[in-house]
Amino acid sequence: MKAPSLAMFSRVSEMEAIPDIEAAALRSDRFRLQRESDWKRLEYILSRLERGQLRKLSDEEVVELPALYRMAASSLAVARETSLDAATLGYLESLVQRAWFQVYGPRLGLIAWLRKFFAGQLSRSIQAIWLDICVALAVMVAGTITGWLLVARDTEWFYALVPTQFADTRVPGASREVLLDSLKVEESAKGMSAFAAQLFSNNAGVSILAFALGFAFGIPSLMLLVYNMALLGAMLWVYSSQGLTGEFVAWLSVHGTTELFAILLAGAAGMHIGRRMAFPGHRSVLAAAAESGQRAAQVMIGVVIMLIFAALLEAFPRQLAGTEARAIIGGFMLLFWVTYFFAFGRNKPEGVS
Amino acid sequence: MSSRALPSQLRERRMKRVRTMITPEGVALPLTIASRGSRAGALMLDLTLLMFGTVLTTWLLFYTALGSVAGQELDEVPGSVEFLFVVWSVFWFVAWNGYFMFFEMGPRGATPGKRICGIRVASRDGGRLTPEAVVARNLLRDIELFLPLVMLISTAFGSGGAAGWAGSLWFLTFLLFPFFNKDRMRAGDLIAGTWVLDAPKPKLAETLSTSGTVATSTSDVTGTQYRFGEEELSVYGEYELQTLERVLREARPEAIEAVAETICRKIGWNPGSGDERAFLEAFYAQLRARLEKDMRFGKRKADKFS
Questions:
Q1: Residue where a domain terminates, one of A42, A70, A103
Q2: Given B30, B130, B209, which is nearest A93 (Cβ)?
Q3: Inter-chain contact A193–B27, Cβ cutoff 8 Å?
Q4: Structural domain includes residue A72
Q5: With an 8 Å Cβ cutoff, are B89 and A194 in contact?
Q6: Hey, are the CB atoms on A9 and B264 less than 8 Å from each other?
Q7: Quick check: is A296 in a domain?
Q8: Residues of B in contact with A11 (CB under 8 A)
Q9: Is A99 among the domain residues?
């Protein structure tokens, strides 16, 4: 290999010599080197923030963040007009983007958010979907009546509606004693907490499903509500045919007022999204979907909390308390939820969300 | 990505994913929608992590339960086992429903899988990502992912028949939702007002013009000075300059040789060998100085065709 020299790259015709000497470093690189330490500092603060170490940052660093962010943003604006260094531009773009997420995303801590949520935000969200709640309630009542009427006309319907694991001894034609026995008070609380935990995950799964299906314009949510309530109507008929309506309602109401209310809210929340997407008003469908989705999500957090209560009530007081106590607990829970959701948190401005 | 000229189709496809956001300072920031591939990858990672975590905990709880009843007469389930069962039920529910929510509410807006894949969740309107939005987007995961898969598997193995297939088809529209809109939102993103963005974290690379031939235009190997005239430098534009920058930064000998040869041919020099890097560095420095000077006067040249 011969020694490399300028001749290797010489121009074919003639060499054009330029007399003036280039500046040693490019002007845009000098611009960058002057500001680099600020960018590095911003990056360091950002990486600490992203790791969730807000508390470990010193006061000066927290104060510096917005200033450093603005400096980086203006560096980016200048660099775009003066520099062609792709690496620097790419770095600055991602740095400003990361900083923007931190500077303009002042998060509420989980605790602060929970406080705001329970002190009115949840109630306001539920009040905002009142129309859907009314529709869902009407559908549930209609479902119950349908179940009742179907079984009253032809008891064969009972076996079509009720899945076999529920219909152990509680079938049409069962004697009064058998039915009364199924409502009896348990002697001890053994095994009850396991029962409660299972109930909770099962019910929560069902209500999340009812909510999620609302996305398809609400129709599947309604179908789920109708079916579940028809099942209840059928059961109600079986008990009332033996004159046990009061006992059954009391037995059911302990946890039922909470659980059915929660399922009602889940169905209504799903339907709310579907309705808003079908009739977005003057907004775009996407904006309407996003707004209603976030509102419905808050309702769903409330639903999950209600279901925890329902499972605890179902496992302990329902199995351990007598008829009057059951009715009182159930009535009280219903009153509690209605008051909390509809009388609480009114006349406050809609929280910033 | 290969350093040999990026195919223009790839570049175009990437540009399709770029959206622009204006910060309150008036700076336009490009945001890149995460590709479906990296989202699927992130999901796989997260599900694998979840599966390992929950199954491991189940095993631990199971062995604890076994240990607590070892050597006892088993007439009925003892309280300790029942307690462990409650812990397990609650844990399972919280893990599978709370994992995504917990991590996406954090300051990074990403689950561990998303973080590894370099993507994050962000609010579509440019505001902050609220807890409500995170909850909303994750509550739909059931009908988007688990139900379609369960439906498909059960129908494929014979139960359900025609209704099963219809149901599967219906659920598939949820599963395939990201393929039907340009922002690649899934149904959960749609109702939560969120989208998933690339969140790259590039390191600040070295300045090129402070060392070597870029700074002096003089080759360290041969001591020769490269000087390019107006005519030679006016051949290329910004796109070629930045491609050249990438070649120099990646420093792969074969790419450098190929690019040096191409440039020589283009500007009518004799391609030689042995000093390509110095040649390219000098060319880069002078081309960039020229283009940046023009830029300051408001004259820009996007690529060699303009």
A1: A103
A2: B30
A3: no
A4: yes
A5: yes
A6: yes
A7: yes
A8: 267-270
A9: yes
In this predicted structure, the answer to whether residue B44 has a pLDDT above a threshold of 90 is yes
Distance (Å, rounded) from C-alpha A241 to C-alpha A30?
Answer: 92
Sort out which chain A residues have CB atoms less than 8 A from B135's CB and list them.
297-298, 300-301
Name the B residues in 37-56 with CB < 8 Å from any A CB. none
Same domain, A122 and A208: yes
User: What φ, ψ does residue B30 adopt, rounded to 5°?
Assistant: -80, 135
Instruction: Tell me, yes or no, whether A13 lies in a domain.
Output: no
Q: Sort out which chain A residues have CB atoms less than 8 A from B199's CB and list them.
A: 94, 97-98
Boundary of a domain, candidates A103, A134, A160: A103
Q: Residue ranges per domain, chain B?
A: 32-140+186-198, 146-177, 212-296
Are residues A181 and A96 both part of a single domain?
A: no
| pLDDT tens sequence across B163-173 | 677 777 777 77
What's the total number of domains in chain A?
2
Token couple for A41: 């500092």
Give the pLDDT confidence of B183-219 residue by residue, as tens digits.
888 888 988 889 999 888 878 777 776 666 666 667 7
| Structural domain of A289 | 112-343
Contact B207 A29 (CB under 8 A): yes
pTM: 0.76
